[in-house]
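Recap from last week: sequence in, structure out.
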Amino acid sequence: MLSIIQKYKELYVAGKCPSIFAFSAEATLVFYCPEKNKTVLLMSTMHKDLTVTSGSKKRARCGLCPSLADNKTSSKCNFC
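Predicted structure tokens:
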């Protein structure tokens, strides 16, 4: 599901890209503001809770992050 939100721009929180997580029995919802007037809303039915793994010594990673072992994935997680 992909959607563009045109209203509610006052939800932007000044600071260093805060993430807001919401959980239900069926899905996880992540609200993220990468920059002013830009909003990312991610809904995942594959993740039921926010499990943080400490596989990397640099920083902990959440369950929504791309796999570090996957060589094809070079993107980083913006949600944690």
